[in-house]
Amino acid sequence: MLEVSPTAPAGDIKAAYKRKIRKYHPDKVAGLGPEFIAIAEAKAQEINRAYQQACADRSITDSPP
Question: Residue 43: which domain range?
Fold first, then answer.
């Protein structure tokens, strides 16, 4: 989901997270209607889970930026 290598350092993971969440954040589609907001919310949750998993896999203690 974050499109980083399995051995990516913390900085690369954080940058990938920021890039993805900026693209899919629900606030970006707020004026487009409830169906787009629901899709964006689901995608943002998926991105957050991927970030948390990537951090856990590498023992990085950090919450989403």
Answer: 10-57
